[in-house]
Amino acid sequence: MSKLKAFARDIRIQQMKEFKARGFGHLGGSLSITDCLAALYGEIMNVDPKNPDWEDRDRLVMSKGHAGPALYATLALKGYFPLDVLLTLNQNGTKLPSHCDKNLTIGIDMTTGSLGQGASTAAGIALGLKHSGKKARVYLVVGDGEAQEGQVWEMALFAAQKKLSNLILFLDFNKRQLDGRTHEICDLEDPAEKFKAFGWHTVRIPGNDPDLIAATVREVQAAQGDKPGAIILDTEKGSGVPQIIEIELNHHITCSPELADRIIEELEAQKKG
Amino acid sequence: MYKVIYNGEMEKIAGKAVFGETMKALLAEDKDVVYLDADLMNSVGTAGLEVQFPDQAFDVGIQEANMAGVAGGLSAVGKKPYIHSFGCFASRRMFDQAFISIAYAQLSARIIGTDPGVTAAYNGGTHMPFEDICLYRAVPGSTVIETTDSAMASAILRQTKDRKGLTYIRLSRKNLPAVYEPGSTFEIGKGIVLRDGKDVAFIAAGLMVAEALKAAGELEKEGISAAVIDMFTIKPLDEALTLEYAKKTGAIVTGENGNIVGGLGAAVASFLSENYPVPVVRTGVHDRFGQVGAQDYLQEQYGLTAAVLVENAKKAIALKS
Ligand SMILES: Cc1ncc(C[n+]2csc(CCOP(=O)(O)OP(=O)(O)O)c2C)c(N)n1
């Protein structure tokens, strides 16, 4: 198993521990973006967990803010804060709320949770960094359901117009949202075609392989020129955990200790296998 | 007519089940009723309506501002839209569209905001509407209602079907203390005296109504006679009843599950200060943002409890000159 795949597996284990401790949460959408987070924090991003406010760091905006638990697990594994903090997810007075909050959690770059808004803030951060002459890059994660918000497409026009070549957007194309299948609710059709039409350097790849995601980020950065980059990730809601994928409406679900333990055990077994 | 059944027990059936049933009945009864939701049908008990009523019920996806504009258009051709999102998004996320394309254009729609205030619980600060009442009160000609329990929610949804203008209805999808008998009807714009009293009057809405009933019980033990008014119509305010109880008790305590800036307490205080000044002590969130947590923890955090109402009642009484 590659280093990044092992990291992704560990992020899944840690987030299942979070959900186990709380008993419910946004499992589907946290799991589906895990491989992307493994690629970003495992290899791509220029960050320093010991200096989380370093002004030249790369930034991540998790615009689908309900995927906080996946990001918290990633940050804890990177050493931003101790692993046992993960067990306080969504407890009274916690530093790990259900949606990402930059003022509560060390390592979170932007407060999100009202879908669509993270997209614009990422563009603002990219524009500001450019303006300050910084080399730092900005990574943005948008959900496919989230991409029904007009704000995402206002940002798409804006970022192309302003030549935000330091920005890469990941679309977590898991084809499901809260109420069901995205194509039945408000179809995005081929989002790659849409981002291309909006002037973005766009590629579409399977979203469950962190090594491929990391390699693709490098390729996009070499090729994007003065365009913003978009990477459409074909994922599954619940990715990496078959028991969760098969729950059709798996957006926000209960998670019994038994289910969590079984999943953790299976993920742990991958270490030996 | 309504019947009060309050005995401190919770409703047996969750608000979202009642909401789903009521919307279904309305869609079946009146072909001009249209229901729109922004990817929260599964959260609010309306999933499946888009299949049963394909010409009347629509999941627009995650695009609240568009939904509000579409509702304006539907109203322009004679439809009767009900649109739903969580209260945070049903206010902040679509406010200009609701303001211009519904209210200013003199069209009609019912905007339903669920998870009022601290009942948003584990969804946290981004999802915890403390300001929706204030925002919708500021729309000229609007109606703003917070339902007290799901019996009232069901009645109000039916009773506002043909109401003109923008109507904001704030309701809970969870179980609340049961106050009214299912099947009750209400008069919009008229507060309900749930308990009479002469020393102080609680004027409350939403989950604070049950807290006020508890507080009045506590005060009675100390020999203080407290009235409790359910002011479910926050706008237009029942000025006659407010005046009557200001005169009768000389001390008012308001209670609301939201920011005291621009809410029910502000409405009561500004009316009384211009017409019959008596002490008004506002109970609610004091200009803070939301956070994650269990509902009871959050009620403690923000002072939305019977104990705080008791304290405020004593404060209001002490302020009587
Ligand atoms: C503006 C806004 N509207 C509604 C919601 C409620 N909500 C949270 S997540 C979600 C579904 C998100 O679907 P998607 O973007 O596809 O995320 P994923 O499937 O990757 O979890 C909804 C409707 C919200 N957080 N923000």
Number of strands of chain B: 12
Number of helices of chain A: 11
Q: Please name the CATH topology of the largest domain in chain B.
A: Rossmann fold
CATH class of the largest domain in chain B, please?
Answer: Alpha Beta
CATH superfamily of chain A: Thiamin diphosphate (ThDP)-binding fold, Pyr/PP domains
Radius of gyration of chain A: 17 Å
**SSE run of chain B:** HEHHEHEHHEHEHEEEHEEHEHEHH
Question: Do you know the CATH topology of chain A?
Answer: Rossmann fold
Head-to-tail CA distance between termini of chain B = 38 Å
Average pLDDT rating of chain A: 98
Specify which chain pair forms the largest interface.
A-B, 31 and 29 residues
Which residues of chain B form runs of ≥5 with pLDDT under 50? none
Question: Could you characterize what this model shows?
Answer:
The complex is a heterodimer of chains A (273) and B (321). Chain A is α/β, with parallel strands linked by helices and 273 residues long. Chain A has one domain (3-272): 3-Layer(aba) Sandwich (Rossmann fold). Chain A is 44% helix and 12% strand. Chain A has helices at 3-22, 27-32, 34-44, 68-78, 117-131, 150-161, 182-185, 191-197, 210-223, 242-245, 257-272, and strands spanning 24-25, 59-62, 138-143, 167-173, 201-206, 229-234, 253-254. In chain A, helix 5 runs parallel beside helix 6 (150-161). By secondary structure, chain B is of the alpha/beta class. Chain B is 40% helix and 19% strand. In chain B, strand 11, helix 11 and strand 12 form a beta-alpha-beta unit. Chain B is globular, with a radius of gyration of 19 Å. In chain B, 60% of the residues are buried. The mean pLDDT of chain B is 98. The interface between A and B is medium-sized, with 31 and 29 residues. Thiamine diphosphate sits between chains A (28-29, 32, 64, 66, 113-116, 143-146, 172, 174, 176-178, 237, 251) and B (39-40, 62, 64, 89, 93).
